[in-house]
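Practice problem 4.
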């Protein structure tokens, strides 16, 4: 999937970490940049049709807490522009909640729906995790019975400083459990799923080394494997 990372075209004063407010000049620059990114998305999709199997016109740009808010009508415009100029199916990657109402008009426009589901961000324990993910998915899928729904982000952090995620809810064992449960369910149901993520990203979030945003990888930053990878390796020996 080839995506265009569209940036803020409106201020979002409700962003909980205060990152959603920009000058008028910056917003105007972002609008021009987004138009250029969509054109680049089209060009690359057409240049590499054997590699690019689908395109996405944005990521988490409509959810209430985003720091890069883009109005729904603009995302619809992006989707239609890409649909008219490429052969690959077009989607938009977003948290499951906006699909339940706020961006229904976008859902009717795109070719398939891409949802993000993170039970641990919603204070769920590992024993509630798969059931909650299934609930998230099924709410969206039932609302759009004629649209394919895929999971483009689902994962489990392995560290937390307690901000946003309870520290006792995250470790390598829980990540391994969630990965195995998620893969078993989605394989059985035939749901295309992307686990978030391959490698820890130390530059994300706050400077705190236990910031949960830094610890979603199934490999550490130095590429050494976490428990989930060890279990997969030994399971297949």
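Answer key:
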């Amino acid at each position: 999937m080839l995506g265009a990372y569209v940036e803020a075209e409106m201020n979002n004063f409700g962003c909980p970490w205060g990152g959603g407010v920009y000058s008028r000049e910056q917003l105007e620059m972002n609008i021009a940049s987004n138009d250029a990114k969509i054109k680049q998305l089209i060009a690359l999709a057409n240049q590499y049709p054997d590699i690019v199997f689908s395109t996405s016109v944005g990521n988490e740009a409509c959810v209430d807490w985003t720091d890069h808010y883009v109005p729904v009508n603009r995302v619809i415009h992006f989707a239609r522009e890409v649909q008219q100029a490429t052969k690959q199916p077009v989607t938009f990657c977003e948290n499951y909640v906006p699909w339940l109402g706020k961006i229904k008009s976008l859902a009717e426009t795109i070719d398939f729906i891409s949802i993000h589901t993170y039970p641990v961000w919603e204070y769920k324990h590992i024993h509630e995790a798969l059931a909650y993910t299934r609930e998230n998915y099924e709410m969206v899928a039932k609302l759009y019975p004629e649209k394919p729904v895929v999971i483009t982000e689902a994962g489990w952090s392995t560290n937390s400083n307690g901000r946003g995620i309870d520290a006792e809810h995250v470790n390598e064992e829980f990540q391994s459990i969630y990965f195995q449960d998620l893969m078993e369910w989605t394989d059985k149901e035939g749901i295309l799923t992307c686990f978030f993520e391959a490698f820890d990203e130390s530059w994300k979030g706050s400077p705190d080394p236990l910031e949960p945003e830094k610890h979603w990888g199934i490999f550490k930053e130095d590429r050494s494997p976490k428990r989930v990878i060890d279990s997969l390796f030994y399971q297949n020996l």
